Amino acid sequence: MRAVLSKAPGGPETLVVEEVMDPRPMKGEVVIDVKAVGINFPDTLIIEDKYQFKPQRPFSPGGEVAGVVEAVGEGVTSVRKGDRVIAVPGWGGLVERLAVPATSVIKIPDGMDFSTAAALIMTYGTSYYALKDRAQLKAGESLLVLGAAGGVGIAAVELGKAMGARVVATASTNDKVQFALEAGADNGLIYPSGKMDKAAQKELSGELKLASGRDGPDVVYDGVGGDYCEPALRSMDWNGRYLVVGFPAGIPSLPLNLTLLKSVAVIGVFWGAAVARDPAGHAANMTDLFKFWSEGKIRPRISRTYPLERAHEAIQALGDRSVMGKVVVTVDA
């Protein structure tokens, strides 16, 4: 079978497509005939050894897959051959066939295509866990989303609306803000690109507060980091919750005096670890997400698709931050 492999640390241009042995299911495993692979920001990091996990090489990137169960191992009763499923292996997904623990797969609802399924679980799973379990977002509250046009950002916009919040979407260009407004955001704001001095940060803080309402946002969803963190924190309302999701703009230094003065809680969001620690909670959240999808409240926005042999282009596009929504690799055996 074909596999996209990382054989040495480096950018997407270092990836190669090679023939490898087909997997066989061990006890408790299933083999998935992969149909689509969602590409996410961790894929850009893991191939450069910049992610918190460093798989032994050669390995394949690709953290979420959708496909059909091709074979089941000993003791597997939860799924059967022919079932349409999704899984989040973390890496290893950019292949034609993949062996994963049967306990990690979830059946795809009828009517959901493979590309949509592959674009759903990681970004919407992360954002729903952040908003529901970590921030405990309530209907009527104000939600500020930084990086609202990215994969997790646009998911947070849609989920915030589905949960009854007033959503303010921020991004670096007018096109990206418009993208988030079309996804349901109530208000939008363009923030500066690149480094900001203290004066620019202070100005941005005022703009964020104004866009979010008189008292500022109750919840900040920060999937960007960098110089945007402090202005967003300064804009927040009393007893706000600041969600730390990711750092494509760099890891910020947080002025803790602001958390004291505003009684703000800074909350880390590590969805992958939460799934491993609380599989029942993850399953319940996925049930909610499928319900939101069936009701038309969320819709994965896939902006680009690539075939397996061009998977490096998919990862490059995400790393360049030139895409809005999701990027998906389709696999034709």
Structure description:
The protein is built from eleven helices and 15 strands. The protein has helices at 41-46, 114-118, 121-134, 151-162, 174-182, 198-212, 229-234, 256-262, 271-277, 279-294, 311-319, and strands spanning 2-5, 16-19, 29-39, 64-72, 84-87, 97-101, 106-107, 142-146, 166-171, 187-190, 219-222, 241-244, 265-268, 302-307, 326-330. Strands 3, 4, 5, 6, 7, 14 and 15 form a seven-stranded mixed sheet that branches. A six-stranded parallel sheet has the order 10-9-8-11-12-13, sandwiched between helices. Strands 1-2 form a two-stranded antiparallel sheet. Helix 3 crosses helix 4 and helix 9 packs across helix 10 (279-294). The radius of gyration is 20 Å and the shape is globular. The mean pLDDT is 94.
Note the gap between the termini. 8 Å
Order of helices and strands: EEEHEEEEHHEHEHEHEHEHEHHEHE
Outline type: globular
Structural class: alpha/beta
The main β sheet shows up as: 7 strands, mixed
Number of helices: 11
How much helix, percentage-wise, in residues? 25-40%
Question: If you compute it from the alpha carbons, what radius of gyration comes out, rounded to the nearest whole angstrom?
Answer: 20 Å
What value does the average pLDDT take? 94
Low-confidence spans: pLDDT under 50, at least 5 residues? none
Beta-sheet strand percentage? 15-25%
What is the β-strand count? 15
